[in-house]
Amino acid sequence: MKIFFKQIFTWWNRQTFGTFIYTLFNGKLVGSDEFGNKYYSSSSGKRWVIYKDTVESTKIPPEWHLWIHSHKNNKPIENPSKFNWQKKYEENLTGTKRAYKPPGSLSSQSKKEIKSYETWKP
User: Fold this and answer.
1) From the CA atom positions of the chain, what is the Rg in Å?
2) pLDDT means over runs of 10, the chain (122 residues)
3) Residue 33 domain boundaries
4) Is residue 10 in some structural domain?
């Protein structure tokens, strides 16, 4: 019951009730990614994603990003071969505990040695 009310009154929890109805009648499941997001298309060419948890556009991997923005017509392959130097895709971590904090920033635990400034003398 709680999930039903979330779908009716909020947009940041997976999908709205309107998106659910539209997906039910017009959507054709194209595939899903490693994060559990599901991708749909309609006969008119519209493409959309139903997120697994909260709605966050950076949770779409690059392969599916190309498809959803119509840069590619074919859906991405299931397990693409990647080079050994490529990292696994992560969503934007800004504002989370896992966000990157360079040495010397105010939120970083490690402190950077800062040299005092000396003016130039001719």
Assistant:
1) 22
2) 69 74 91 92 93 86 91 84 86 87 77 75 76
3) 2-68
4) yes
